[in-house]
Amino acid sequence: MDDASPPRSLELDATAEDGHRFQLIARIPAAPHASLLWLPAMGIGAKHYVPFADALAQRGVAVFVHEWRGAGSSSVRASRDTDWGYRELLTLDIPASQAVIAQHLPDTTRILGGHSLGGQLACCRLGLSPESAQRLWLVGSGAPYWRAFPARTAWWLPLVYRFLPWLADFHGVLPGRRIGFGGQEARGVIRDWSLTGLSGRYAAAGVDVDLEAAMAAATLDAHAIVLAKDWLGPVSSLRFLLSKLRRVEPRVDVLDARALGTRADHYAWMKHPHAVAEALAR
Fold first, then answer.
1. Paired strand residues for 133
2. Hey, is 25 helix, strand or coil?
């Protein structure tokens, strides 16, 4: 850290243009050299990234953990009567978080990053708003496109991408906790995510911008961390996602269990984040 005093721990109110309210969990060191807006994985509440935020704040990075619509501190919950998709996440909620950061730290280098789906939507957001960040950080992320996965996984993924939207439509929401994948997720999010899984292309219902073309035009520094045994985010999936950023030359680090001090899977690093934080902040 740049100062001996501990980082400030804050919960900051954010309001999207449609009235959706939520809180960002913030860890702000005394003299931050950069600010990070961190986007969680699908179905993961912001509170689960507090150890990661603490680890980065100890290294001089101010961290603001976004809360997805429908999770944690969010004022809404997905239901048969309340639905949303990537459009709301990309054009309403993430901008609301970015506005909060601009109020608190207007002059620091801005980083946008995320875990899993959060990393994908960070890339999409940078296509829509390239001026909103100068750096991109990804952990355990990658496109869900079935052809970007190893053969042992790829053959059954199209079945998943057809079944989950049907299941979400049937129940009114994705019953993620019952099936062991995601949370109680909105039908529109599952539909947008599954379409990318089947086609390999990013699009958001209700967004007229060509996200593929927008990402291809982005220019910034990018650093990605792959967990060596992460079947949900293998390096092939990450490379496919990064290929969307045609003008970016990313740095990619692969961390194994020895480096992490824990299992090198999709989630274990969240409780033992220091190796990931050190690699990103280095």
1. none
2. strand
Q: Which helix (H) or strand (E) holds 96?
A: helix 94-104
Residue pair 9/26 in contact by the 8 Å Cβ criterion: yes
Q: Which of 32, 92, 43, 39 is nearest to 64 (CA)?
A: 39
Going by C-beta distance under 8 Å and a sequence separation of 6 or more, which residues neighbour residue 22? 14, 67, 69, 72, 73, 74, 75, 93, 96
* Ordered DSSP codes for 106-128: TTSEEEEEEETHHHHHHHHHHHH
Beta strands in 215-261 (DSSP E): 221-227, 251-255
Strand pairing report for 34-39 and 21-28: unpaired
Distances (CA, A) of 136 to 102, 199, 236, 280: 17, 24, 18, 10
Closest to 185 measured CA to CA, from 265, 89, 92: 89
CB 212 within 8 A of CB 202: yes
CB 146 within 8 A of CB 158: yes
Amino acid at 89: L
Each residue's pLDDT expressed in tens, for the chain with a length of 282 residues: 445 678 999 999 999 999 999 999 999 999 999 999 999 999 999 999 999 999 999 999 999 999 999 999 999 999 999 999 999 999 999 999 999 999 999 999 999 999 999 999 999 999 999 999 999 999 999 999 999 999 999 999 999 999 999 999 999 999 998 998 888 999 999 999 999 999 999 999 999 999 999 999 999 999 999 999 999 999 999 999 999 999 999 999 999 999 999 999 999 999 999 999 999 998
Residue 55 tokens read as: 């680890």
* Token pair belonging to 205: 């219902």
Location of structure tokens 């990931």: 276
